[in-house]
C-alpha cells in the first residue's frame, strides 16, 4: 500500500518541480531579456557616458570615481537592453520629431572618446529632464563632479548650467502667472527654502572670507567668482521668490566657521560643500522644470569647492558628504 501511494505521488512531485523550474527560467529570462523602459534608456545612456569618460585617454578622472558613478547608476544593460539602446541610437538621426530631451538622451549615441566638459553637459541635459527623482539627483551629482574636475584644469571656464539673461527672461515669463496664491505657496517647501538659506549663508561667508583674505592671487579671483555666482543665482526669479515664503528663510547674521580667520579658503569651501549637499537633496524633490537653478547651485558650489581646496579629491558624486568619498 505504501509503495503504491509513493508511486502515485511521484508524478505530482515531478509536475511541481517542472512548474517551479519553468517559473525560475521565466523570471531569469525576463531579468535578462526585459524590454527597455524610458527610465532604463536614460540610466543606461548615463552609464555609457560614464564608461566613455573612464576609457577616454584625454580625461584623468580617478578610476575609483568612475566605479562609484557606475555603481550609483545601477546594473549594466542586459543583452536585449543593449540591442534596443543601439536601435534607438541608429534611429535617432532619422527621426524628425521632438520627443523631449529625456527620450533623446536615451537614443543619442555616446562618442567613444569624449571630452569631460562635453560629458558633463550631456549628463546635465539628462538630469534636467529626468522624471525619476533619484536618477535625476545621481545624474546631476555626476555632472557637477565632472564640471568641478574640468574647472581645476581650466579655472577660466564658465559654469555649464549658468543661466543667461535670455533663458532667465523666458523662464520668468513662463512662471509669472504661477507665482501667486496657492501655486506660489507650493514652492515654499522646506527643501527649497533650506537651499535659499544656505545660498545666503554661503554668500555671507564668502564676503567675510574675502574681507579677511590677504592673498591677491588665485584665491582672490576664486572668492570673487564665487560671490558673483551666488549673487547671480539669488537674483533669479525662481530663487528670489523663496525669500518671500512664510516662515521666511533666514538672511544674514550667520555664525561664521571657526577657521575663517586663519584659513578663509577652507571656511568658504566648507559652506560651499554644505550648499551642494542641500542642492543635491532638493533636486530630487522638484519637477524637471524647477530643477535648472538647483543644478546651477550644485555645479557652482562644486566648482568653488574644487578651486578653494585644490589638494582635496573631487567627490565622485557632488553633494555627497565628503566622508563617503574617502
From TrEMBL:
The keyword Membrane applies. The keyword Membrane applies. This is DUF4439 domain-containing protein. It comes from Kocuria atrinae. Residues 92-104 have a biased composition (Polar residues). Residues 89-109, 164-184, 306-326 are annotated as: Disordered. The lineage of its organism: Bacteria, Bacillati, Actinomycetota, Actinomycetes, Micrococcales. It comes from the Bacteria. The chain crosses the membrane at residues 12-33.
